[in-house]
């Protein structure tokens, strides 16, 4: 299956529902020198598969760490040093094969390098796919602290179900991506997720490929609002002592939850938040606020970040984007109290 995704004047072709060897044809990369940027875990697992798909074209690999925010200054310096040995009189194909950090790094480098070539993405998760269709490509000084930014959509995105389905430990991360879409942009979609995934078994045993078109449509209409939802709360964990007790994805998840609770604090909503939280707990999401993290310090860091995020997305209702509004200290304290009270009850 094929979709066309457009943002401003840029356009991407998305191919999904097929294995890579069926969707990537030799004429697509003929006479191009291929540079694959990937994570260590995907290099170890899929090196031979990727080599075979692009044979007999020459392939050079650049292997990054497995970190989500691997698109940092040091990695940028290292990949530029790596690319320095390639002549600029050839045509290149830059392929990001991996997580969101790899996609950000590859997209930024392809846009700024003197080496002429195209930019493709082979996402390994649906979260990575979502990042691929957001225009901004950035390099971080620290996690979530952008230092350099360029706009660059990939020319082609190939989503291989057999690769995505193999990431069992990433199923909740992908589902989290869909849940945020439902909360921010499409309540009917959130209800669909609730009905289709009543337990862990359904999550692990069901392909998410049926939702690719929904994800694509939602991001085409509201990618900024969806991606921004929860950011201030997520970033505060990186600034807080013992924030490392939460993985990068757990920080993001709790960030979305706290933003949701803040929204419910300032709007009149009939959303059944308790049932929603019970569902998330039942699926295995990490809803607890870690006891190793000081609530007071964390809240101070959220307030400090208001200089960076002065206006936050406010939902008119769950699934409907409304206005933007600043957050008060009183609201923030109440949000944390309400969140912890509800977690204790369920």
Please tag this protein with its features.
346 residues, alpha/beta, Rossmann fold, Dehydroquinate synthase-like, alpha domain, 2 domains, seven-stranded mixed β-sheet, two-stranded antiparallel ribbon, 49% helix, globular, 3-dehydroquinate synthase domain-containing protein
Strand-helix topology:
Blueprint (H helix, E strand, L loop, with lengths): L1 E6 L2 E7 L3 H4 L9 E7 H15 L4 E6 L8 H11 L8 E7 L1 H13 L4 E7 L2 H7 L3 E7 L2 E7 L4 E4 L1 H5 L5 H14 L2 H10 L3 H6 L6 H17 L2 H9 L8 H19 L6 H11 L11 H10 L7 E6 L2 E6 L3 H17 L1
Helix pairs in contact: 7-8, 7-10, 7-12, 11-12, 11-14, 12-15
Description:
The protein is an alpha/beta fold and 346 residues long. It has two domains: 164 residues, 3-Layer(aba) Sandwich (Rossmann fold), CATH 3.40.50.1970; 162 residues, Dehydroquinate synthase-like, alpha domain, CATH 1.20.1090. The protein has 15 helices and eleven strands. The strands form three sheets. A seven-stranded mixed sheet has the order 1-2-9-6-5-3-4, sandwiched between helices. A two-stranded antiparallel ribbon has the order 7-8. Helix 2 links the parallel strand 3 and strand 4. Helix 7 packs across helix 10, helix 11 crosses helix 14 and helix 12 packs across helix 15. It starts with a strand and ends with a helix. The model has no long low-confidence stretch (mean pLDDT 95).
N- to C-terminal separation? 42 Å
Overall tally of domains? 2
- The helix content, as a percent range, equals 40-55%
> Which structural class should the secondary elements be placed in?
alpha/beta
Average pLDDT level: 95
Largest sheet: 7 strands, mixed
Helix run count:
15
Portion of residues in beta strands equals 15-25%
Describe the strand arrangement of the main beta sheet, using strand numbers. 1-2-9-6-5-3-4
Radius of gyration: 21 Å
Inertia-based shape: globular
Provide the CATH architecture of the largest domain: 3-Layer(aba) Sandwich
Order of helices and strands: EEHEHEHEHEHEEEHHHHHHHHHEEH
Name the CATH class of the largest domain: Alpha Beta
| Number of E strands | 11
- Which blocks of ≥5 consecutive residues have pLDDT under 50? none
At the third CATH level, what is the topology name of the largest domain? Rossmann fold
Protein name: 3-dehydroquinate synthase domain-containing protein
Organism: Enterococcus saccharolyticus subsp. saccharolyticus ATCC 43076
């Amino acid at each position: 299956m094929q979709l066309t995704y457009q943002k401003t004047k840029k356009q991407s072709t998305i191919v999904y529902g097929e294995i890579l060897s069926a969707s990537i044809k030799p004429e697509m990369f003929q006479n191009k020198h291929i540079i694959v940027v990937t994570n260590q875990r995907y290099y170890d697992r899929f090196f031979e598969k990727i080599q075979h798909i692009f044979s007999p074209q020459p392939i050079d690999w650049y292997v990054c760490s497995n970190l989500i925010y691997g698109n940092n200054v040091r990695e940028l310096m290292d990949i530029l040093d790596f690319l320095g040995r390639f002549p600029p009189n050839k045509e290149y194909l830059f392929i990001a094969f991996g997580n969101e950090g790899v996609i950000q790094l590859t997209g930024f480098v392809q846009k700024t390098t003197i080496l002429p070539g195209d930019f493709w993405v082979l996402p390994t998760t649906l979260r990575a796919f979502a990042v691929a269709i957001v225009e901004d490509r950035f390099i971080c000084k620290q996690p979530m602290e952008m230092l350099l930014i360029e706009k660059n959509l990939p020319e082609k995105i190939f989503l291989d179900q057999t690769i995505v389905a193999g990431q069992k430990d990433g199923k909740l991360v992908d589902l989290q991506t869909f849940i945020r879409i439902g909360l921010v942009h499409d309540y009917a979609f959130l209800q669909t997720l609730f009905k289709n995934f009543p337990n862990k078994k359904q999550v692990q045993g069901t392909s998410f490929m049926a939702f690719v078109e929904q994800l694509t449509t939602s991001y085409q209409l509201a990618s900024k609002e969806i991606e921004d939802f929860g950011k201030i709360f997520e970033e505060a964990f990186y600034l807080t002592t013992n924030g490392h007790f939460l993985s990068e994805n757990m920080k993001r998840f709790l960030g979305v939850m706290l933003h949701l609770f803040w929204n419910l604090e300032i709007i009149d909503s009939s959303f059944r938040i308790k049932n929603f939280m019970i569902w998330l707990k039942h699926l295995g999401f990490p809803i607890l606020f870690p006891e190793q993290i000081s609530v007071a310090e964390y809240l101070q860091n959220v307030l400090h970040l208001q200089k960076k995020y002065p206006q936050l997305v406010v939902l008119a209702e769950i699934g409907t984007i409304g206005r933007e509004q600043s957050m008060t200290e009183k609201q923030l304290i109440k949000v944390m109290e309400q969140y912890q009270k509800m977690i204790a009850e369920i």
